[in-house]
Design brief:
3 strands, Arc Repressor Mutant, subunit A, MarR/SlyA-like
């Protein structure tokens, strides 16, 4: 015996087909899996690659700026940093101009690993770009940036 749903099944199908959040999450998970697999030989995840890349700058970066760039709260960023610090890829230093904040920097080992990871990212990214119908890749990137 089937029950009458409070929301018609057709509405469920409409939401499934039109929900930007659902489609963005599904795409993000699929992309994350692809990049995680590609970076696995270096024992990096796509999130760790992004964090290392965010720290690839001439000066140590304030934690708040890195968190904003990666759309993370500081607690999440702190947790993401721990395995990279254990591997001596990242260092956290006291900010001389503000004792309450930390500055983040790549170590020499972190720079070397990032240099090995970049060609893998470039190759994987080119594969993903080839999957996108032309000329949609630019508008997709622009739309994603606008929403983030």
């Amino acid at each position: 015996m089937s029950k009458v749903p409070a929301i018609p099944y057709e509405t469920t199908l409409f939401v499934r087909d039109h929900c930007l959040c659902l489609h963005a999450q599904r795409a993000a998970r699929a992309l994350a899996r692809r990049f995680d697999e590609a970076l696995r030989p270096l024992e990096l995840t796509n999130g760790q690659f992004s964090l290392l890349m965010a720290l690839n700058r001439p000066e140590a970066a304030p934690m708040g700026a890195v968190a904003r760039l990666l759309a993370m709260d500081r607690t999440t960023l702190t947790a993401a940093l721990k395995p990279l610090e254990r591997r001596s890829l990242v260092t956290s230093l006291a900010n001389p101009s503000d004792a309450r904040s930390r500055l983040l920097a790549l170590t020499t080992e972190g720079e070397a690993l990032l240099a090995k990871a970049l060609p893998i990212w470039q190759h994987t990214h080119a594969e993903v770009d080839r999957l996108l119908p032309e000329p949609t890749s630019v508008p997709i990137r622009e739309a994603l940036r606008a929403m983030s």
